Amino acid sequence: MDTFHIHGPCRLQGSVRIAGAKNAALPALAASLLVDDTLLLRKVPPVRDIATMRRLLANLGVVSQDTEDGVELSPNHELGREGLHQDEAHYDLVKTMRASVLVLGPLLARRGHARVSLPGGCAIGVRPIEQHLAGLRALGAQVELSGGYVDTRAERLAGARFRFSKATVGGTENLLMAASLAKGETVLENCAREPEVVDLAHLLCRMGAQIEGAGEATIHIEGTEDLHSADHSVISDRIEAGTYLIAAALTGGDVRVENVQPGHLEALLEKLEETGSMVDIGSDWVRLQRNGELRARDVVTAPYPGFPTDLQAQYLALMTQAEGPATVCESVFENRFQHVPELARMGARIEIDGNYARVPGPTALSGAHVMATDLRASACLVLAGLVAEGRTVVHRIYHLDRGYEEMELKLQKLGARVERIST
Ligand code: EPZ
What we know:
Blueprint: E1 3-8, E2 13-17, H1 22-30, E3 39-42, H2 48-59, E4 62-66, E5 71-75, E6 88-89, H3 91-94, H4 104-111, E7 113-117, H5 130-138, E8 142-146, E9 149-153, E10 161-163, H6 169-180, E11 185-189, H7 195-206, E12 210-212, E13 219-222, E14 230-233, H8 238-250, E15 254-258, H9 266-274, E16 278-281, E17 285-289, E18 299-300, H10 312-319, E19 326-329, H11 339-345, E20 351-353, E21 356-359, E22 369-371, H12 375-387, E23 390-395, H13 398-401, H14 407-413, E24 417-421
Parallel strand pairs: 2-15, 3-14, 6-7, 10-11, 18-19, 22-23
Antiparallel strand pairs: 1-23, 1-24, 3-5, 4-5, 7-9, 8-9, 11-13, 12-13, 15-17, 16-17, 19-21, 20-21
Helix pairs in contact: 1-2, 1-7, 4-6, 5-6, 6-7, 8-10, 8-12, 10-12
The protein binds ligand EPZ.
């Protein structure tokens, strides 16, 4: 298993190019199940979760090829006219990646039947999918749970009005895809407003769907009989961009992140300015410099446009070095402080009180062996290693590879001493 060896402290300097967004590419790939045609997706990041989704799609009869323009997806016609030969997403694949549940809506809408292994809990929370299922039921699907699988059936889904009891990114995406092929109009209320949801709606509209209101709490979808091929570039990864911007603030550096949509980073940029960094914004870049004091500021994570939960761990690492007390409240997931005991191994002082992490003040960090527990926790530990005295060894880097493209190379380009050691 690979580890990262990080020699700190360092000051990051230079520019880094941000990849396409994992959390936009995953539903976009699943949308290929909606068509008996080719889909070209550009800027799909070469990270492990994408490979998992492509393997799942191959099992469901969609082949994907890397071309110079991007990832080309098409039905596997060797398996008969429609290509799709299977409507079951097996436990073996789903257990490795929760986002596999995103095949449920499109598969059911297209095939009339979908059987998907229940994702189960993960390191950051129980993460139920009852809103996904309630939405599909509202569109007329029969939904049964048995043997660890959800089994859904509908000759053709029918448009309906459905209100999510909680804004859910995956639930909104599943229902958007399902409703695109339903009969009649669907109105979804209390939807997630994340940029990745909007990007999926843009793709579906390119495929011929009729969707209005993506990015707002209420979305209208007029179902159509068929969808068609499309060519779509996924948006850039605001979480990857945010990770490098926080790393720049943490190391007192000067970093420009390129190929980003600055508007997607508003909540973070506001907070980084409050904590003492200088931020310049261009059309597709953001430059952050911090020379002076790093000030402590509280933060509460929230659905978009609030402060992203996927940057909470990285921000907590920043607060361990800030002057003054800071409180970080995690309001989206119930168990997303697994990085705290590992930061404590490096010398950080953080008190956990339910979904609050309180940092009484700055402490010097020293290099240590630490263990990654999930994707964003691993990014947090890498960032802490950049300012710790001596060598930090981050174990289970496979978590990081799920969502970050070549992080060690990008950090090396910014002047960090980071090595990947493969054993
Ligand atoms: C997406 O997960 C992202 N994953 C997550 O990023 C991200 O943390 C999350 O949205 C929130 O922004 C992908 O896009 C692949 P939710 P998702 O449904 O869709 C509860 C990363 O690091 N809930 O919006 O699973 C749920 O338990 C990952 O890249 C229900 O209670 O998130 C959570 O507390 C981690 N019932 C909250 O809602 C449901 O039916 C938000 O979850 C669905 C969700």
